[in-house]
Amino acid sequence: MPEVLIIGGGVAGLEAALTLAEHEIESVIIEKELRLGGKASLYNCKAVDGVCQACGACLAGQRVRAVEEQELVKALVAARVAGMRNLQDGLEVDVETPNGRLTFQVRGIIVAAGIDTFSPALRAEFGYSHLPGVVTALEIEGIIRESPEILGESPRLAFIQCFGSREVGAGVPYCSRVCCLYVPKLAGLVKGELPGSRVDIYFMDRQRYEALYRPKTSFCTHIRAMPSKVHLMGSKELEVIYDDPETRKPTARRYDWVVLCPALVPGKDLPSLASLLELGTGRGGFLQVGAGGTTNRDRVLAAGACTGPMSIIESIASGRAAAGKMASELRRQR
Ligand code: SF4
Ligand code: SF4
């Protein structure tokens, strides 16, 4: 019988399960989607000329395969936590599955419920969903993977960073932390696939570590401005309007594709899950945690991006840290 129930089958949850297995602790992963791997498994390898760029995308598939081979880990997909009660020496958790309701009596829970992205539809002036050629970064990843020829031989692309981040009015007052590193790698992937492409990167702000990657995007034009609007010119050319950072005057540049790089936000189910488990949330609505993923509740730890925006590699480290803490707690209680 599993001793630990892990909510979320993304990289943090998978890593937590594998780490518990190293400590000979059985666990069960509850994943609401139909497959394991989470959002991390939707990204492409960003290696340039065979050189790894440490994006972490391949780690998702590796963790899924390792979990599938690990006897001490069970995974239920299309499953959701429906209730939780305290026991004298543990927790009782109800889980809805396609085959009916299951109840687990466990000694601990690790919440690794993942993350969502800011809905581009909330900023209608950028034309997502009604202008051809306005897409999200994740959609461009899919196009490059499936059929890069759709982009054209020498496309002009505008990447818009900080999209939806640092917007108090939209409920996203914080910096998403990871896109400063992600966007240059994505731009490098596009350039590698389509050497004739022209790439502009719009940004409001920059993380200091981004300077490390700036030389790798010397083929891009970096524009410090948040565009105010995207227009359709003719049948498929897109015009991006922004205030020129030097003259402060409205300026326009034309593109074939506008790629929105949206803010990372708490998963849409996180508020109800937090309420069900009686977990505290903090700034931006993410779960509030201390060292090793401790929460306001005994026996419940949290890991990964449901505790705040983080990269794939950071999520894996967070899952490992929470599982290590859980293992030492369980050992102490034995
Ligand atoms: S970490 Fe990223 S760039 Fe490196 S091999 Fe894996 S997927 Fe490719
Ligand atoms: S990580 Fe960079 S691109 Fe993303 S919101 Fe923060 S400053 Fe903007």
TrEMBL record:
Keywords: Flavoprotein, Oxidoreductase. InterPro entries: FAD-dep_OxRdtase_2_FAD-bd, FAD/NAD-bd_sf, Metab_Enz_Cyan_OpOx_G3PDH. Pfam families: FAD_binding_2. SUPFAM superfamilies: FAD/NAD(P)-binding domain (SSF51905). The keyword Amino-acid biosynthesis does not apply. GO terms for molecular function: oxidoreductase activity. Residues 4-39 form the FAD-dependent oxidoreductase 2 FAD-binding domain. It comes from the Bacteria. PANTHER family: ANAEROBIC GLYCEROL-3-PHOSPHATE DEHYDROGENASE SUBUNIT B (PTHR42949). This is Fumarate reductase/succinate dehydrogenase flavoprotein domain protein. It comes from Syntrophothermus lipocalidus (strain DSM 12680 / TGB-C1).
